[in-house]
Design goal:
Blueprint lengths: L4 E2 L11 H7 L3 E2 L21 H9 L13 H14 L3 E5 L2 H10 L7 E5 L4 H13 L3 E5 L5 H7 L4 E7 L11 H11 L3 E4 L4 H4 L9 E5 L13 E5 L13 H4 L9 H5 L3 H14 L5 H12 L1 H20 L4 E5 L9 H7 L7 E6 L2 H11 L4 E2 L9 E4 L10 H6 L6 E5 L5 H14 L1
The structure holds pyridoxal-5'-phosphate (PLP).
């Protein structure tokens, strides 16, 4: 038997809780041997039963795999599971978070097009927008997230193709008002694309607030153990592409003479069909099946880890706020934080596990702090079970000049902490050692 039994498919699981779906959603039990855990299908291609079978798979009439560049059974389970947890209609995993972002953007915008983005974003994304995306002729224009609706609307042009944001922008944690941005995007006739890496679908599901496309770096909390680089793209399946054919003609026009358009072929999933069948097939940012195997194992414990991540982060943020060596703590779970009320609305289960601090004493204090840590790792990365610390100004934000850094809230004493799930007592003891060295 070629196609195995699909245990739980996307869109048919609403009666099951998140904790159940993170283990079961999208699973396919292999029909040959009944392997209960999704195997690593480490294969480039798949046997066609006949010429007609190969033809049908290439044409997309038969959903069976044709080639692993954009379709592999291990990866497919991961894509379906993330889509299910996000409340989306379809999902796919790719080689990194950066690959997910650029693939989503290049499936919406081409040379001459324009994307609006909120100002505070992960610095790697800003560099991508100002680098490779700009070089391909797509302009990304930043608007302060809290700018008025009129100001947002005034920046929309006939070439605008999306609004892009992050649920909890890394590293300053200024929680975004997703419902308002979705409203602004839809009034402009464009989809809202949200990077939900830092919140994860356990803490916030942007699609429930109106987002149309969700991207992830699965390298972070979804995998959770610091052993994987990967990304994911989820389509809510709600945006009416046909109603905006002037902006997205590649979805409504025949790709070649006599062929059906993506909207005719895939309806509400037209964009997803284009993403998978054109962008990902052309660019090839594939993720190894072995990485998706690790990702699936990570997702199975996501809720448990997130509960501990946010509990630890909250306690550590409260502790840091009392310390004289710390000038400022950015954590929306703190009542003193300007995003606290918004966090209660969008992140009722916890405000994530990035705690960003400004040390009194600038770079010198930061160097002493990092140098004294024994348990907490001085490294770039977030969303690991281990607690990590990073001096932003000399690493991720090193390419910016001082005034640009200040505008983004990155000072010489700024340290980004990604709080892990170790004993909170041990993490605090190590942070105390670091602060003591200042
Ligand atoms: C919010 C966010 N999005 C995307 C990325 C990029 O992900 P990756 O490193 O998997 O390419 C990162 C990486 O730190 C991130 O923090």
């Amino acid at each position: 038997m070629r196609r195995a039994h699909l245990l739980i498919t996307v869109g048919r699981v609403s009666e099951l809780d998140f904790e159940t779906r993170q283990i079961h959603a999208g699973t396919v039990v292999d029909a040959e041997v009944g392997a209960r855990v999704t195997p690593v299908y480490q294969t480039a291609g798949y046997l066609f039963d006949s010429l007609e079978d190969g033809e049908a798979r290439f044409a997309g009439r038969d959903p069976a795999q044709a080639y692993s560049r954009n379709d592999n059974p291990t990866n497919a389970v991961a894509g379906r599971r993330i889509a299910d947890l996000e409340g989306g209609a379809a999902g796919i995993v790719v080689g990194s978070g950066q690959a997910a972002i650029v693939s989503a953007i290049f499936s919406l915008a081409a040379a001459g097009d324009h994307v609006l983005a909120t100002e505070r974003l992960y610095e790697g994304t800003r560099q991508l927008f100002e680098g490779a995306v700009a070089r391909q002729g797509v302009t990304v224009e930043y608007v302060p997230e809290d700018a008025s609706e009129e100001r947002w609307a005034s920046r929309v042009t006939g070439r605008t193709r999306a609004i892009y944001t992050e649920t909890i922008p890394n590293p300053r944690n200024d929680v975004v008002d997703l419902g308002r941005l979705a409203h602004i995007a839809h009034a402009a006739g464009v989809p809202l694309v949200v990077d939900n890496t830092v919140a994860t679908p356990y803490l916030c599901r942007p699609i429930e607030w109106g987002a149309d496309i969700v991207v992830h770096s699965t390298s972070k909390w979804l995998s959770g153990h610091g052993s994987v680089i990967g990304g994911a793209i989820v389509d809510a399946g709600r945006f009416d592409w046909a109603a905006h054919r002037d902006r997205f003609p590649f979805l409504t026009e025949a790709p070649r003479h006599g062929a059906p358009s993506f909207v005719e072929r895939a309806g509400a999933l037209a964009w997803f069909a284009y993403l998978r069948g054109v962008t990902l097939l052309d660019l090839g940012p594939s993720v190894p099946a072995a990485s998706s195997f690790l990702l699936l194992h990570g997702i199975e414990t996501l809720s448990l880890r997130m509960e501990r991540h946010v509990e630890n982060a909250q306690r550590i943020a409260e502790w840091l706020e009392q310390r004289a060596e710390v000038e400022r703590v950015d954590y929306p779970g703190l009542p003193s934080n300007r995003y606290h009320e918004r966090a209660k609305r969008y992140l009722p289960r916890g405000a994530g596990s990035i705690v960003t601090i400004d040390l009194v004493g600038g770079r010198e204090a930061a160097a002493r702090f990092l140098g004294a840590l024994r348990l907490v790792s001085n490294m770039t990365h977030i969303g690991d079970v281990r607690t990590l610390a990073l001096h932003s100004a000399s690493t991720i934000h090193a390419r910016l000049d001082e005034s640009e850094r200040q505008r983004l809230g990155i000072l010489q004493g700024t340290i980004r902490l990604s709080i892990g799930i170790e004993s909170v007592r041990d993490i605090i003891a190590d942070l105390q050692r670091g602060l003591g060295a200042i």
